[in-house]
């Protein structure tokens, strides 16, 4: 019998289990025992657990969530279709024992609904149940609802130490823990110490759902640094979570609200998720940024020099495929003529700009990367109060473009961006360290802002809170300092400063292997069984420590301190050097996450292929 431990039983761990199940009949004849280890509910895991506020929603629509492979997925393992979230909801799952509000939510779900995370937990639980029910006869699964606290080698096998339970001795291990907590970074520790010395309150980056917000007093001014998804959760919990409600586009207060003053370097919240479908169908991507093209480029790659023009052209291709085919009345040329000229011209050239101006008369119908990346660029006002209507106007305009079907090219660009993300991640191991240091954070920030935004109804709520005076935006270029009077926030948009005795860093902690709160990974690092990725220039100069667990790109094998891969120890997820866009994906997208799950699962099965079975 061969044994495998999967540390982390959320969507990533379950995705690996499903792919192990799919490929076992091909790659293993003997019996196989799989142990799922997670202190949080198996299937849902920590992020999607049922025990969280029912107000918190997904950032994906019901029709855009699946854990299963389909005919679009190009992988070596068998395709095993299964229900998307929407399929599952339509089928009428057994709701015995469900809370009444969750039953009501399920009954009201449509393909365009953004379900609550609690409802998503029920779908993920069903996925795990279906995976287990479909296991080959020689595979058994055991769930251990405890934390894994250590991992050591014992000959050819590995010992997983469990919190309060006997250890597991297994043949292979997959680390699939998802987002990891970390102790504060040096700058955050310094700010914590300074805040405590002055009797101030500072909340460093962390999962907002786990933050103790009881320290925020009603009526006080609170500084929030960060305007991404963690900020959206913060807004939900501080306002609606305290009894406020939204009626007819207006906020009705409970009397327990603070006043939130928020900003970031970009100064703008993430773009809302598009709420329409594609009129022209999914653009045939990749078209310009293809594996054949990128494989032919000289190594090492430089993103800005070699890839960025192709990345931009690919995303623009998705935009214009939808515009020209879905809205022919808005352009002056046919798709065949457009594509021929678009293909021959270099992105960013004067000729391309002239062609697009002639082919697409209205500037609003042309893709504008600068505006997408920095929607508040140039925004200024004589005071913070005067800035607010200007900010609301831009946010409202952006929301309209993500709801009005005149602007479906945004969705075409979004779809192409997913393709670009996958190809960039594929070739990233061959990108020069200097370029990774300089260019990857910029790309990730742009991708998050454009492709990882909140549902439109959340943006509506943000606008309502701003109209009511409970939420104020500082604009781009936020800067925070601390002195004996408290925290002081300024921005490039207004001459005003805002003072507060509380600062919340509304974002996730940066990944850090050497500051990880996970005892298993900390122990591996200390023992030399793992290493943090360090980007080093050609001359040996250290450029940056990424905080990521270094793995072999093709299959996630964990590298030890000397850079040698452990052939029976694997890791997947955002804490590793191989990034996937998410643990689950849209149906029909040939998703990188599903393809990578397949590659890792098959590597795990090959690693234990020679393990003797009990029958042998």
TrEMBL record:
Top-rank lineage group of the source organism: Bacteria
Record InterPro entries: FAD/NAD-bd_sf (IPR036188), HpyO/CreE_NAD-binding (IPR038732), L-asp_N-monooxygenase_NS-form (IPR052189)
Domain FAD-dependent urate hydroxylase HpyO/Asp monooxygenase CreE-like FAD/NAD(P)-binding intervals: 5-179
Protein name per the record: FAD-NAD(P)-binding
Organism of this sequence: Pseudonocardia oroxyli
PANTHER family given in the database record: BLR0577 PROTEIN
Pfam family, any one: NAD_binding_9
